[in-house]
Design a protein that fits this description.
Blueprint (H helix, E strand, L loop, with lengths): L1 H22 L30 E4 L7 H7 L4 E7 L6 H12 L3 E8 L5 H14 L3 E6 L1 H15 L26 E5 L11 E6 L4 E6 L7 E4 L9 H9 L11 H21 L3 H11 L18 H6 L2 H8 L4 H10 L12 H15 L16 H8 L3 H4 L8 H10 L5
Bound molecules: nicotinamide-adenine-dinucleotide (NAD).
The site of nicotinamide-adenine-dinucleotide has 36 residues, from helix 5, strand 6, helix 6 and helix 9.
Length: 417
């Protein structure tokens, strides 16, 4: 009986997915148009593709990193991490494995939590000087993204930094140089960066986040080891998890944290192929324009709005806004998040999902909207201005949005509860 219900549910989700595939106008950078159909045709996603790093999942797999590098023929490895993690077991386990397998390596532990163009460039300089033949990134999204950028620009030493940065901020040039192997060892659960060809940073000059998006920078291998999640402080679990809408309460619950770690990789595979949209586009100025906010449990000396938090604070407003394009899917999402939708009316899908998200965020002690992290109405024009260049993601939203729409979404996100 339970199996039949599960099968019915999977079939239902697959039907939803199929319907979604034909409705989406510009699905992603891997958008596929049936041969012979006009480029403007919006009706035919005829295929989908899954571009993803190799991943190995399991408690303790980190110990194999030295063997993997040996198999790759690596002789001179760059190990990247941040200052905090350099003192913690995940980095120690990697170093032990490298030593055991006789791999020469140098440590770069100056990764900035929520990296900037300047911090990327410091890491790139280190990589260029080191002439490494392989990279290992041990950390969260900040470390993995920094390492991807270091590998890219060290492999393309004559490129300007903006050459590969997404247009319109950068030139968005395709990557045609071969990169060195990169093994990513994620220590947070949420970014999925170990599976994606994306590296995100704050472009300090404009005070917005942007990034580099190319399959060429995807890690060669992701070693997804749930043991690392046991060291994460409470708010890091929550804030990194919000990026993919998960969280767990009990730090010692290895099973829950293991599932979350794997879910993060799967989510990365999902959004690495399908893309993300408005919450992410709006999150970049929310992080970039940070004034004094300091996130609890983050061992850093600069103000920061963690990426997951910057994404999730606008989610109730955004999904209220997009619901009219596909109310059934919004209701389905509310149901997955625990809402009872049996008697729900289709036109109420947006408010129902928004309320469900608010309750979820409240239960997880999330700050009460943009106002609680230091923004006011006076900041809205700057937040909108910072969102407008984020076309790589905002254009993937199911509903197009004007500047007035964006203003209204920021205003509605000032207070959540
Ligand atoms: N490339 C992508 O596809 C992608 C996707 C989403 C987000 N991002 C980017 O990732 C960054 C955020 O990464 P994040 O949320 O993973 O966190 P993070 O890398 O910024 O780390 C946050 C803090 O947690 C600490 N930490 C990490 N793992 C720990 C552990 N196991 N134990 C103890 N402390 C630990 C770090 O030292 C740091 O102080 C943002 O810059 C965001 O834009 C990238």
């Amino acid at each position: 009986m339970a199996a039949a219900a599960a099968r019915a549910r999977v079939a239902h989700l697959l039907r939803q997915l199929q319907r979604a595939a034909c409705q989406c106008p510009t699905h992603s950078h891997t958008y596929s148009q049936a041969p012979g159909l006009p480029a403007s045709g919006k009706t035919t996603d005829y295929a989908f593709e899954m571009a993803v790093s190799n991943i190995r999942y399991g408690a303790g797999v980190t110990k194999e990193v030295g063997m993997d590098l040996q198999n790759m023929g690596a002789k001179n490895v760059c190990l990247m991490t941040d200052k905090n993690l350099s003192q913690l077991p995940p980095v120690q386990v990697v170093m032990d494995s490298l030593v055991k397998n006789g791999i020469n390596f140098k440590v770069y532990d100056n990764v900035r939590v929520e990296p900037t163009d300047r911090s990327f460039m410091e890491a790139i300089e280190f990589a260029k000087k080191g002439a490494f033949d392989a990279y290992v990134a041990v950390g969260g999204g900040s470390t993995m993204d920094t390492c991807k950028a270091a590998n890219l620009y060290a492999s393309s030493p004559h490129s300007d930094f903006l050459d590969y940065v997404n247009a319109p901020i950068g030139k968005g040039k395709p990557v045609s140089v071969p990169l060195k192997p990169l093994i990513a060892v994620p220590t947070t659960s949420g970014t999925g960066s170990e599976t994606t060809g994306v590296a995100i940073f704050d472009y300090e000059h404009l005070k917005v986040k942007t990034g580099i998006a190319s399959r060429a920078i995807k890690p060669t291998l992701g070693l997804i080891d749930p043991l690392h999640t046991l060291h994460m402080p409470d708010r890091v679990v929550a804030n990194s998890g919000f990026d993919v809408l998960w969280a767990v309460r009990n730090p010692d619950d290895l099973e829950a944290r293991s599932n979350m770690h794997l879910a993060s990789a799967f989510a990365g595979i999902g959004f690495g192929n399908a893309g993300v949209h408005l919450c992410h586009g709006m999150s970049y100025p929310i992080s970039g324009l940070v004034k004094t906010y300091k996130a609890k449990d983050y061992n850093v000396d600069h103000p920061l709005v963690p990426h997951g938090l910057s994404v999730v604070l606008t989610s109730p407003a955004v999904f209220s806004f997009t619901a009219q394009m596909s109310p059934e899917r919004h209701l389905e999402t509310a149901e997955i998040l625990g809402a009872d939708t049996h008697t729900a009316r289709i036109p109420d899908a947006g408010p129902i999902l928004a309320d469900t998200l608010r309750k979820f965020l409240f239960d997880l002690d999330v700050d009460d909207g943009l106002a609680s992290i230091g923004y006011s109405k006076a900041d809205i024009p700057a937040l909108v201005k910072g969102t407008l260049p984020q076309e790589r993601v905002t254009k993937l939203a199911p509903r197009p949005q004007s500047e007035e729409d964006l203003s209204a979404l920021f205003e509605a996100s000032m207070k959540l509860y």
